[in-house]
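quick q for whoever's on today - can somebody do inverse folding on this one?? i tried earlier but teh output was garbage lol. tokens:
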């Protein structure tokens, strides 16, 4: 078999497909459990006039003003986007790992590079889904900011059609620039998670306990989220489509200008802490979701490999 055929077989492998399916299933389940926390986080990010309060207080306000099911508004498009996004990410990450390592030991720097590469592919492929789900999730919400324009989408496909007709195809990739910068989030998360697993395995020489996987996933996500949160706020605002972007320069310069404007404007209005408005809700949601996702992912992947009688590749540890 030639080198090209060997690499092709590694990229389109059964093992990568198992990892992708397990990652997608784990993320969908975890997000469903903690979805109301994400609703609270998103409101605080895009509605500048909503006062920053505790997550339970924000959720209580939303339920009181908009109904009991309001915290789960937009669940379907979010879950569809998350399922596709994590499938792409896990598949790319493990395909790259199988292709690049080729029997060599992984290192934090290699994990980081593979995470960044997988993240770039993921962003370019799935950003339109995230733009649509952000709009649907906020549709019908009662905002404190009167400048926010209401939208009227009947579903995922109608949102795609309306956005293309009203704003152009390019609007489906709103927020792509901060999203590309934010590939550091999952890359750092995977680097820390894989590093912690390697360290513990070198000490105890056994399979990880469920609690250990949960804690490693939580620690990795907490560090990655805190580090990148200001850019996540800018990303949410741009995806929501209420910020008017400049069109007098190249798309890259326009995106960079919008990101800098939103960051500086936030600091001027609310101080440095304004960049971290909603961080409590985000950390609560994303840390718990990521920890549960990693736990489910590891268990699902191990179960599939066991049932199919395939030994789990060493590179996946």
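ok took a stab at it. sequence:
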């Amino acid at each position: 078999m030639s080198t090209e055929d060997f690499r092709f077989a590694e990229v389109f492998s059964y093992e990568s497909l198992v990892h992708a399916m397990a990652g997608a299933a784990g993320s969908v389940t975890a997000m469903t459990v903690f979805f109301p926390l994400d609703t609270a986080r998103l409101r605080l990010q895009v509605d500048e006039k909503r006062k920053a309060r505790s997550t339970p207080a924000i959720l209580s306000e939303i339920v009181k003003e908009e109904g009991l099911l309001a915290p789960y508004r937009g669940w379907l498009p979010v879950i569809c986007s998350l399922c596709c996004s994590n499938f792409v990410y896990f598949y790319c990450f493990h395909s790259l790992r199988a292709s690049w390592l080729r029997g060599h030991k992984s290192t934090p720097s290699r994990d980081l590079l593979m995470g960044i590469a997988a993240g770039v592919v993921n962003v370019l492929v799935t950003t339109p889904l995230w733009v649509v789900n952000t709009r649907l999730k906020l549709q019908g919400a009662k905002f404190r900011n009167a400048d926010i324009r209401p939208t009227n989408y009947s579903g995922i496909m109608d949102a795609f059609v309306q956005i293309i007709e009203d704003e152009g195809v390019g609007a489906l990739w709103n927020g792509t620039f901060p999203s590309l910068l934010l590939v550091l989030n999952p890359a750092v998360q995977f680097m820390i998670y894989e590093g912690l697993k390697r360290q513990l395995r070198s000490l105890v020489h056994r399979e990880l306990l469920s609690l250990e996987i949960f804690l490693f996933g939580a620690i990795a996500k907490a560090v990655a989220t805190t580090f990148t949160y200001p850019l996540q706020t800018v990303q949410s605002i741009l995806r929501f489509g209420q910020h008017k972007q400049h069109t007098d320069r190249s798309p890259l310069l326009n995106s960079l200008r919008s990101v800098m404007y939103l960051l500086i404007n936030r600091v001027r209005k609310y101080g440095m802490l304004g960049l971290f408005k909603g961080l409590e809700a985000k950390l609560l949601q994303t840390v718990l979701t990521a920890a549960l996702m990693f736990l489910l992912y590891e268990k699902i992947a191990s179960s599939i490999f066991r049932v199919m009688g395939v030994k789990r590749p060493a590179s996946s540890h």
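fwiw The longest helix spans residues 108-138. also DSSP finds twelve helices and no strands in the chain. so keep that in mind when u check it
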